[in-house]
Amino acid sequence: MNIEEIKAILPHRDNMLLLDSAEIVDGFACGKKEIKGDEWFLKGHFPDNPVVPGVILCEILAQSVCVLMNGKLGENQLPFFTGLDKVKFKRPVKPGDVFETKCEITKEREPFYFAKGTGSVNGKVCVSAEFSFAVTEK
Question: What pTM was estimated for this model as a whole?
């Protein structure tokens, strides 16, 4: 999926739409985000040694999972992030990196969805996490 196709699924816009592309492969959401170095979240984190904040990495994982949820949502429904667990940061993500996600839905108990995923650069895991969503009406 390109950015326009992602916009048809996610409500995020402007600076908060963090995926550049996404696809579903064998039941996994696989997303990509190229870190160019001019992103708003790098300006103060850290001025002489820019590193993508962990919370941003987790948001990219969450947006990736929402691509998987696309067929499960009604027209007036939105997924809201409700939980984050077992987060582990293993390597920093820096300008010039292409951050790649691989996420899956592990359990569904409507209106809740549970997922887990990893984010990597060059095949090396940078972050792993479990997370949950609640589906609500717009």
Answer: 0.94
